[in-house]
Amino acid sequence: MAIPTPGQPVRGSRSGAPIMALFDLLGRRWGMGVLWRLSEGPCSFRVLQERCETISPTILNRRLKELREAEFIVRCDQGYCLTDLGRELHQMLVPLSCFSRQWAEVLRDETEEPS
């Protein structure tokens, strides 16, 4: 199965808008998680599997292949590491991570308010 490609139909977009292709790739099971864990530094397959905790070897292999094809990660002496493009993507996701924590607080606060 090929990776989602800008300009080609992807989940959620018949036009294949680049952002939708990216979200399709990262939205796959463990897609963003693998990228996020590799932001902690290069590592071997086994160490990456440990960092991802519940990922199966089959899914990890598939995500690594897709993220390599997308040019977000490469094989390196230590196993796998982010490319410059992968590091740039991770840096763009950090503010989204901060926003998600704020959102979680808002939702938690709303459910704790007395009726």
From TrEMBL:
The keyword Transcription regulation applies. Keywords: DNA-binding, Transcription, Transcription regulation. One of its GO terms (molecular function) is DNA binding. It comes from the Bacteria. Residues 17-108 form the HTH hxlR-type domain. SUPFAM superfamilies: Winged helix' DNA-binding domain. InterPro entries: HTH_HxlR, WH-like_DNA-bd_sf, WH_DNA-bd_sf. This is Helix-turn-helix transcriptional regulator. It comes from Acanthopleuribacter pedis.
